[in-house]
Amino acid sequence: MSELRKMTDWSKLRDMVESTRLDDKSRKVDETKLLDHLNSRVKGQDEVIKDVAKLINLSWRKQERTRPICSMLFLGPTGTGKTELAKALTEYLYGSEKDMLRFDCSELSSPDMAKSRLTGSSSGYKDSESGGQLTRPMMANPRRLVLFDEIEKAHPLVFDLLLQLMGDGRLTEQSSGKTADFTQAIVVLTSNAIADEVGKAVEGLTDYHEIVNAVKTLLAEHGTFRPEILGRIDKVYMFKPLQGMIIAEIALLKIERLAKEYGLTVEFIAPELLMQALEANMKVSKFGIRELERILFDKFASHMVEMREKRAKAVSFDIDEGGQIVCRYQGPPETPGPKK
Ligand SMILES: Nc1ncnc2c1ncn2[C@@H]1O[C@H](COP(=O)(O)OP(=O)(O)O)[C@@H](O)[C@H]1O
Ligand SMILES: [Mg+2]
Asked: 39 in ligand 1 pocket by Cβ < 6 Å?
């Protein structure tokens, strides 16, 4: 230790470690900061985000847990930010988006697949040694958000495992007898299957709590979710279809992110260029924005590479009379050529 003492400023380091938002001892989440973070990544779902931040803050503070920190169900049309919100939560609460474990339930539609993927094959079978792709990562690091996408497509066996996971906060691998702990995890289930029906059921309702109640009633009647599962879910959230200006804002966010990947900042983009991208997106998906990223990439990436090669740092994208992109940039001054 004596040598290590000189290696850094220990008192400063201690302050920094102790003030880390993730230090579990504090059992606190700064709700305002969490909300800011979620707002910076997820647009147009303000009520959802506000309530999620509140729920997380309250559940995170519990002293003793025998169940996951919280279990949530995200409902709504595809491409409205359900996965994005799960990622943003993971990034803020656990430190990195990589700590999210994601399962596509359409791949868990047979009992064999469900079991081998989640808790590992039975002993004697191929791969039974390696354990489950859910249980093993949880054993290695129990601080994770676990996302089950398109939950309605899962085999009933998945629901049995989920009941254990959400009810007891643990899952045991049959083949190895090892147990994974979920009491520091957040569970998110998503579904867009009955989005249309849900949409109709809440038409005309404006009060958010009224909406959530109508949805819960519908889910129970519909039989998509067994009552025991619904009973284990702390909250159901409804994601709204995205409005035009929100999609425009997301497009700007995505351009900013893309530019960052090329080491650039964007100072200005002509609205006409954004409109071109939004219209192209409208053609392929009426509400969703799954294609938006690809469209923006096709439109801007080559220009960004070109700008980067000119050693640009800050760039602007304008439009000429023919509707083509005109790039302007600021960068280092042109290096004068060799003196003659
Ligand atoms: N409300 C939103 N705010 C910001 N980005 C969004 C939003 N909705 C969708 N996106 C973007 O669109 C893509 C698909 O969104 P995703 O969250 O995966 O949709 P889904 O609701 O189907 O899970 C992601 O790249 C995400 O960045
Ligand atoms: Mg998704």
From this structure: no
